Structure formats: structure tokens, C-alpha cells
Amino acid sequence: MKKGGAGVRARRGMTDQGLMMAKWIPTDYNPDDFANRRHIGPSPAEMAEMLAAVGVPDLEALIAQTVPAQIRQEAGLDWPALSESALLARMREVAGRNRVMTNLIGQGYYGTVTPPAIQRNILENPAWYTAYTPYQPEIAQGRLEALLNYQTMVSDLTGLPVANASLLDEATAAAEAMTMAQRGAKSRARAFFVDRNLHEQVIAVIRTRAEPLGIEVILGAPEDLDAASVFGAIFQYPGTYGHLRDLTDDCAALHGAGATAIVATDLLALCLLKEPGAMGADIAVGSSQRFGVPMGYGGPHAAFMACRDELKRAMPGRIVGVGIDAKGNKAYRLSLQTREQHIRREKATSNVCTAQALLAVMASFYAVFHGPVGLRAIAQRVHLHAVTLANALREAGAEVAPDAFFDTITVRVGVGQAGILAAARHRGINLRKVGRDRVGISVDETTDADVIVRVLDAFGITEAAVPADAPAIPEGLLRDSDYLTHPVFHMNRAESEMMRYMRRLSDRDLALDRAMIPLGSCTMKLNAAAEMMPLTWPEFGALHPFAPQDQAAGYHEMFADLSDKLCRITGYDAFSLQPNSGAQGEYAGLLTIAAYHKSRGEDRDICLIPVSAHGTNPASAQMCGMKVVVVKSAPNGDIDLEDFADKAAKAGDRLAAVMITYPSTHGVFEDTVREVCRHHP
Predict the structure, then answer these.
(1) Which positions ≥6 away from 492 have C-beta within 8 Å?
(2) Are 208 and 591 in contact (CB under 8 A)?
(3) Which residues make beta-bridge pairs with 285?
(4) Before 635, cis peptide (omega within 30)?
(5) 45, HSE (Cβ side, Cα atoms, 13 Å)
(6) Measured between alpha carbons, how far is 293 from 108 in angstroms, rounded to an integer?
(7) By the 8 A CB rule, do 292 and 268 touch?
(8) Is this structure's pTM higher than 0.85?
């Protein structure tokens, strides 16, 4: 400091403290505030500029002008907001209440290893997880290529020429295949055969979907199939308890009766097993979860569907294809899609309007990463671990079934079932309870010698297991055809080259990491990074959906908290968190309405749906067995109340439901919504 500086300041009447305070300008910026415009976007200054441009003083005034007062909540929500760091700390706390075990339950869900390059560059990369549904293929070329890889992988492994770009889950894919079979079959039968060896959850969803459509479900063993009495049949291959069956004769019998043959299958198993297409199957469905996608307590996971070429126009979902652009260059496009704007809304047969694109992309990159040789090696290792376990159990005197299997066996343990299940849990392993006297074991990619030792120990077997070197698959069911022959599955699989390929594809896409996306609807990807991070924690990702509930206390705490908050937001008494898409939520709600009318002895089957509603709405109503009556829109886009009243009156006692999209697809909060909801014909 220069000599005399203090004296100069003193003469001016300013102390050191005063000078410091003059430089200290208070700010309202809170670096820990999640709502500090970091996620939502506009800064306070930008918001003030926009509010001035539209001529309102603040957000409250803007909301008052755009959302009718009579439909706004009278009281605010009272739970506290959390900062990002506090949220993650809270999630760590909740995650700690889940117990991560080695899960050998199977039933369609398996431990898998997500290659780190895929986890960091796909699942955790906003270039992939913030991308919008690819309605505009010109800004989705990277994703479309990855999804085309997925289709190629599914088509090759199932042995069927056409595959779609994924569906929601295996159970709904199986149900979609049932209705697809009904549309494509030559048989006039109204019954559908379901192999009792299907996974339980798949059977349950098929039953649910069949009932409102008047489809009779016949559950039985494949050998009891009467092909002439059904329009189609679905078989599990391998079966839920591990059984392998050559379905060639079953498919031939169905074809002879003009019926459709469907196979629910496992992609990893098909790396070793004879493919469904080679057996004559018309449709194949399943889940791609075990291709690098964590179990996540049941999902989400990308289902797959493949079919014969003649059935492709009846396939739900989307098919990515290759075309030529205006300059003569190769370009990817959505070749076929059953999206609502392309179908007669009131005649829709499927409400599938989306795909599990992110998870399908992960599974496709898993196949690219390992290639056909790598996938076969993983499948062989899984199978031989299962054979090793079966051999060791048999040598100890246990009754093990079946003789031929891929990765799943059952052991008859009699009255010792509860004790063995408990002993396995004590050793950190979940086994499957089968009936009253058996235990199921399904090995997977994460199974190693230590897991085998712990499983055998739970059965009281201490002798070291001899590693198997011969398969337990009949020669006639061993695959002899090639798969994944496209060059993309034979590229240099060095991590650096893989990352370059992923980057090249993301560079051909537009997502929120690059720009705003000028599309709206119900599927905007506005998840913050802090919300996405827990997805990859083992405490959430490694839980099996059929694990004992006490191992998922953290998940159930979240479910209860979310349900409570949704009830308080909406004013309803209870919420179902089960539907895996908005369209499936519509379907579940309409089924509930139909069940309510049935419980009152009322025969109501008409659903009024405004033309301004989402296109999935009439499709969901059709699938519930309801008759759709379309209500006109007024010139401003609102519901035409006069037309609504007229059609409600004509429906009379047959009126089951009114289904509106709110705000409408025009983006309007209609103040007539109360009048619509109050209306009684």
C-alpha cells in the first residue's frame, strides 16, 4: 500500500471496513439451488425480458392469463424442494435400504455386464438420453442407424426377416403378437393357445389383453395343442423352467389349420439354439435386457418383435429402413409405423406409439461391442456354468430337471424348499421358489465359480464342482446357421474405436445437448443429470423384480412417496405406477372404468373422444373393447360442447367413458373441462 493511503481514505471519510462493504454486493444466486434455472433453462434476466415482451409483470400474471382460474389448484404444494447435492444424498440414503444380491431367479430377468464404454457413452450421455422420438428422421440419423443395428441383430438371431425397432416389454410384446396373429391368421377360431411354460407375468398380461377383445385363452402343455381350435399359439423357448422343445411340428400343425405360430424366446440362448424361424415360427418376441441393460427392478427394457415378411404391415411399433435422399445419398427413415397419425384413429388395433429406443440402442451396441464370436462365447460360458451346477447337484443325489436346457434348471427339494431358499439368501443369493417342493436356478453372464460354490453350499454340498465341458443341448437343437454377419458387427472392437463409432452416430442426431427440440407432445425428455445418476447405481440397477420385497425397501419407499405426491397433485385417492407408457396408462384406466361398470351390472361400451385428443386414446379404447365415437373440435381447438352433448345423449346408457387430452394437443387448457366432466346424458 502506498504511503499515506490510509490518511487519504480517512480524510474522505471512508474506513477500510466501509471500502470492503462498498465492494461487497449481495447476490441472490444460490449455487446449491436446483431451481436456479440450471435445469429449466431461462435465467431470471431472460425471463424478465420475455415477460416484458408478452406484456405481463411476472410469472403469476402469465399463469393467470393462460390457465383458467377455475381449474387451478386453490392451495400450493407444501413439500420442500431439494438442491441437486441434497437430492443425491437423499437418493444414497434410499438406495442403502435396497439390498443387492446375486439373483438367479430368471423368469425373463438376468444379471448382465454393461460394458463401461456403453454405460458412459450411451446410458449416461445426454446426446442419447435426451433425444426426442425420431419423428423427424433427418435429425435422427444416428439413432436410426443404431436402431437398424438392433433390428438386424434381432432378425438374425430369431431367423425371421423383419424386426421392429423395439417395443415396451416382453409381456406386452407377447400380447401384441397375439392380436397381430388374430389379424393375420386364416383361421376363424376365437381361441388362443398359451404354453404353460411361458413366464408367469407374460401369461398374466396376455389374459388381461385377451378378455376385453373376447379372445378365449387356452393354457396348456404344447403336446396338448389342438391347432384346429385356435387362431394362434405362443410357446416359450427355452421354457420358464428351462425346458427345450423343438417346435417345428407344432408350427407345422398350426399352419395346417390356418393359425399363427409365435415363439417367446431369449436372444442369448439363440446364440447357441436353433432359431425360431428355422422351426417355422411366424412371430418371435422377447426381451433384450440381458444384452447389457441392468435389471432395474423390472425395467424399463427394450422388447423385440420379429416376423415373416407377409406380416410386417400388421406389426405394431416402428420399422427403420434405408432409403435414398434427394441428393442420391443413403438415408435412414421410418419405413413402417403404426403411429396414430398414420392410422384411422377409431379403427386402431394397437396403442403402441413409442419404443424403448435408449435401451434398444444399448442392446444393439452390446452386440456390436461383442460381435457374434463374443456373444457365442458368453452364451457358452453361461450354459456350461448351468451344466456344472446340474452335474454337481445330480452327483449329490438331487433330482434335477430338465435333461436338456440352456441356463435354467429346477431341483426337487421336497419339504426342504424354505430352508434351501433361506440358506441361499444367507449366502447372498436369491433362488426361485417353484411350486411347493422345487427350487429354480437360472445362471447368467455374471455367474462365476464363486457363485457356483455358494449355491452348492446352500444345498449342503461342499465337494468342489467339476467344470463341465459338454453341452446339455440336443444335437438337433444346436444352431447351425450364421448370425450377425453385417460388417458393423465385425468392426474393430477396441474401446477407442467403439467410442468413435458411438460419437459418429451421436453427431448425426439432434438432442437437448445441442439445441432445443421443436416438438412437444407427451414424451419430452426433461430429466436432469442429477435425476439420471442413480440409474446406474447397483442398489437400483441390480435388483431383480421378483426378489423378496424386504430387499427392495428403498424402491418401495420411493413408490409410496411418489404415489402420495401424485395423489396430492391430482386429488385422486390412489395411483398405479405399473403402466410403462402413457398409452398403457390410458389402457389401464379404461380397463378400470370397464370393470367398474361391470361390477354395477351395467353394459356400457361407448367412449367419447374429441378429435383434439392424442391418437393413442382411441387405440386404447378399441383395445378395451369399447366403441369410439369422435367428438368435433370448435374452431379455436376446444371441444365442441354442442357436439359432445349431442353424442353423449345418443349414447345414453351405453356411455362408458369420456377421454380427453388435457391440455389438448393444441396446447390449450380449456376452461370447459369442468362442464365436460360434469355432463350426464
Answers:
(1) none
(2) yes
(3) 264, 305
(4) no
(5) 2
(6) 13
(7) no
(8) yes
Which of 368, 315, 42 minimizes the C-alpha distance to 166? 315
Residue 13: burial class (beta carbons within 10 Å; 0-12, 13-18, 19+): exposed
Q: What angle do CA 350, 355, 358 make, to 5 degrees?
A: 170
Q: pLDDT per residue over 120-151, tens digit each?
A: 999 999 999 988 888 788 899 999 999 999 99
Q: Which three cell numbers stand for residue 662?
A: 388435457
Classify strands 655-658 and 606-610 as parallel, antiparallel or unpaired: parallel
* Cβ count near 263 (within 10 Å): 29
Check: CB of residue 575 under 8 Å from CB of residue 567: yes
What is the C-alpha separation between 607 and 350, in angstroms, rounded? 16
Residue type, 530: A
The amino acid sitting at 43 is S
- Enumerate the β-bridge partners of residue 218: 193
| Bridge pairing between strands 408-412 and 432-434 | unpaired
- Could you read off the pLDDT of 326-374 as tens digits, one per residue? 889 899 998 887 654 455 666 667 887 667 999 999 999 999 999 999 9
d(CA 552, CA 433): 18
Q: Which residues contact 338 (CB under 8 A, 6 or more apart)?
A: 315, 316, 317, 318, 348, 349, 350, 352
Give the residue carrying C-alpha cell 390412489.
Answer: 574
What radius of gyration, in Å, describes the C-alpha atoms of the chain?
A: 29
Three-class secondary structure of residue 185 per DSSP: coil
Specify the 3-state DSSP secondary structure of 629: strand
620, burial (CB in 10 Å: exposed 0-12, middle 13-18, buried 19+): buried
Q: Give the span between the Cα atoms of 484 and 465, in whole angstroms.
A: 34
What is the rounded distance in angstroms from the CA atom of residue 385 to the CA atom of residue 139? 45
Helix 357-395 and helix 495-506, axial crossing angle in degrees, nearest 10: 150
